[in-house]
Amino acid sequence: MKERKQSRLENLIEDKVRPFLANLGYSLVETGFANIKGGSKVTLFLYSKSNMSVDDLARLSRKISPVLDELDFLKNDYLLELSSPGITRVFKSLREFDIFKGHTVKIVKDKEILIGECRGIENDYLLLMINNEINKINLESINKAKLYG
């Protein structure tokens, strides 16, 4: 599977907020950074095993902002946007297979479509439970992976 390449600034943001979020029970799924008129925009896609409400995201935003304020390149005004990954998220990194263990995923491999329960990664293989049987799928053969319903 081809992973999305992150920018240096996105990596700096991730390194700063990932441990903070993990201590609060959240997984950081994806980080985005963009220059916008008047400043910057930081987008964080978060996952929690418990449902996240808009109020939860607002509270979390107030907790994350002071952590981001420590980064020199964010000293100017920035917009912080928090979101859940969504129920049909297209995977952009291999770590998402571990974040979404136990969830149903749709895998496109060559011209074949597989739907099953994600069991994580072992060596260079995705473990996918289909009809009560574990299937090992070579990660390099995966064209696309996404959460499925």
Write the layout of secondary structure elements.
Layout: H1 8-23, E1 27-36, E2 39-47, H2 54-69, E3 78-83, H3 96-99, E4 104-109, E5 112-122, E6 125-130, E7 133-138, E8 142-147
Parallel strand pairs: 2-3
Antiparallel strand pairs: 1-2, 4-5, 4-8, 5-6, 6-7
What report would you give on this structure?
- The protein has helices at 8-23, 54-69, 96-99; strands at 27-36, 39-47, 78-83, 104-109, 112-122, 125-130, 133-138, 142-147.
- The protein is α+β, with helices and mostly antiparallel strands.
- The protein has a 5-stranded antiparallel β-sheet with strand order 7-6-5-4-8.
- Strand 6 and strand 7 form a beta hairpin.
- The two termini are 21 Å apart.
Structural class: alpha+beta
The quaternary organization reads as: single chain
Number of self-contained structural domains: 2
- At the fourth CATH level, what is the homologous superfamily of the largest domain? RimP-like superfamily, N-terminal
Assign a percent range to the helix content: 10-25%
Strand order of the largest sheet: 7-6-5-4-8
CATH architecture of the largest domain: 2-Layer Sandwich
The CATH class name of the largest domain reads: Alpha Beta
State the CATH topology of the largest domain: GMP Synthetase, Chain A, domain 3
Q: How much strand?
A: 35-45%
Query: What global shape is seen?
Result: elongated
| Secondary-structure element string | HEEHEHEEEEE
Biggest sheet, open or closed, and with what strands and sense?
5 strands, antiparallel
Look at the structure and give the mean pLDDT. 93
* N-end to C-end Cα span: 21 Å
Task: Count helical runs.
Answer: 3
Report Rg: 17 Å
Give the uncertain stretches in residue-range form: none
User: What is the number of E strands?
Assistant: 8
